[in-house]
Design goal:
single chain; about 450 residues; alpha/beta; Beta Polymerase, domain 2; Rossmann fold; 6-stranded parallel beta sheet; 10 strands; elongated; GluRdtase_dimer_dom_sf; 4pyrrol_synth_GluRdtase_dimer
């Protein structure tokens, strides 16, 4: 079993490509079902946000897995492999582990250290839990990544400054209009990002806020908090002209605000300028809107420069956070490797018990037939030794032949203690302490 992560994000692809490989919340369950039907895939988690689409998988082997997964991704999204292959990144084993920990901690985000990504990772994990799409290794990895993210937040200053896509959108509005106090704002959507935007705008005391959403219920909760008006998406057309600033972030697969709608709004406003900030992927606002006079359209990618200017104080904290991630990923891989030995140890112990029972039965039968007890014990010890050391001897020879000094040292370390452990297995002593006493004294009696 191998852990694998593949994805596409804001570093490797523009929004025009990212929006074509997103998974809507409604499609995640079906996507996971399809993904787990692929040969070699044992478990999976799909993480899809405005800045990244990633698959975290446990697979049986790595051979041909890249081609298989690219084929699945392209078939699912109706893409050609050449359209997406160069923008994909791949992480295996320890790299996959550390990548997820970095993502959950906000170290790989467009906004360094932003906290929203942890909630998005948890949501992706919960979706896989509901669909029973998790392998044991993936479940342990995600749970560990959540604790690492919490540790990064607690032990570093990575989240000390208010930097996020939502904050950057508000910063852009303040840079263009200087004061927001006399402006009307239309927010499209009612998700996490819009919630943050609304709270930032309330702090800057905008004149009036309108929240447009598919359902009134969710929007009303936010509106009650920030003192906003609620409308539905079909009402945007008639209310757009009232807005000086439009900030949109929904999960709609198609644009909500088109060029014609904005043209009508500008005409009604007598060409007073409008700022439109589209932070959705796929985009909520048709790109052609940006060609209209007095319509200033910015996408999530345009916010990058603003975000970069707010990162200086987080960079020092990021160094400390990276150190935490590195150590925790090493610890996780050590645990993962130990799990690979569990079945081997269980099989070896079972085999040892069978040998003990077989040899014990023969010895007891010999004693019952009048054989000399001391001679029976000597023969038992000799035969047990030969049967016991056969597999370890082969391992020693293999380790020596491979030049694996560390493994050779581990196998040969503490021979008396090792003999005691095995002797306790094969002779039925209740504890290794009793068997160790026997090995030290040469007496087949229990320790005092």
């Amino acid at each position: 079993m191998t852990l694998l992560a593949l994805g596409i994000n804001h570093k490797t692809a523009p929004v025009s490509l990212r929006e074509r490989v997103t998974f809507s919340p409604e499609s995640i369950e079906q996507a996971l079902t399809s993904l787990l039907q692929q040969p070699l895939v044992q478990g999976g988690v799909v993480l899809s946000t405005c800045n990244r689409t990633e698959l975290y998988l446990s697979v049986e082997q790595q051979e041909h897995i890249h081609e298989q997964l690219v084929s699945w991704l392209c078939e699912y999204h109706h893409l050609r492999p050449e359209e997406v292959s160069k923008s994909l990144y791949w992480h295996h084993g320890n790299e996959a582990v550390s990548h997820l920990m970095r993502v959950a901690s906000g170290l790989d985000s467009l906004v360094l250290g932003e906290p929203q990504i942890l909630g998005q990772v948890k949501k992706a994990f919960a979706e896989s839990q509901r669909g029973q799409s998790l392998s044991g290794e993936l479940e342990r990895l995600f749970q560990k990544s959540f604790s690492v993210a919490k540790r990064v937040r607690t032990e570093t200053e990575i989240g000390a400054s208010a930097v996020s896509v939502a904050f950057a959108a508000c910063t852009l509005a303040r840079q263009i209009f200087e004061s927001l106090a006399e402006l009307n704002v239309l927010l499209v959507g009612a998700g996490e990002t819009i919630e943050l935007v609304a709270r930032h705008l309330r702090e800057h005391k905008v004149r009036h806020m309108i929240i447009a959403n598919r359902t009134r219920e969710r929007a009303q909760l936010l509106a009650d908090e920030v003192g906003a008006e609620v409308i539905t998406l079909p009402e945007i057309d008639e209310r757009l002209a009232d807005a000086d600033i439009i900030i949109s972030s929904t999960a709609s697969p198609l644009p909500i605000i088109g060029k014609g709608m904005v043209e009508r709004a500008l005409k009604a406003r007598r060409n007073q300028p409008m700022l439109l900030v589209d932070i959705a992927v796929p985009r909520d606002i048709e790109p052609e809107v940006g060609k209209l006079a007095n319509a200033y359209l910015y996408s999530v990618d345009d916010l990058h420069a603003i975000i970069q200017s707010n990162l200086a104080q987080r960079k020092a904290a990021a160094v400390q956070a990276e150190s935490i991630v590195q150590q925790e990923s090493i610890n996780f891989m050590a645990w993962l490797r130990s799990q690979g030995a569990v079945e081997t140890i269980r099989d070896y112990r079972s085999q040892a018990d069978q040998i003990r029972a077989e040899m014990e039965a023969k010895a007891l039968a010999a004693i019952a037939q009048g054989a000399d007890v001391e001679q029976v014990i000597h023969e038992l010890a000799h035969r047990l030794t030969n049967r016991l050391i056969h597999a370890p001897t082969k391992s020693l020879q293999q380790a020596a032949g491979d030049g694996d000094v560390e493994r050779f040292a581990i196998i040969t370390r503490q021979p008396r203690a090792g003999s005691a452990l095995v002797f306790s297995l094969l002779t039925g002593f209740n504890t290794t302490h009793e068997a160790f006493y026997c090995c030290q004294t040469g007496s087949v009696t229990r320790a005092p």
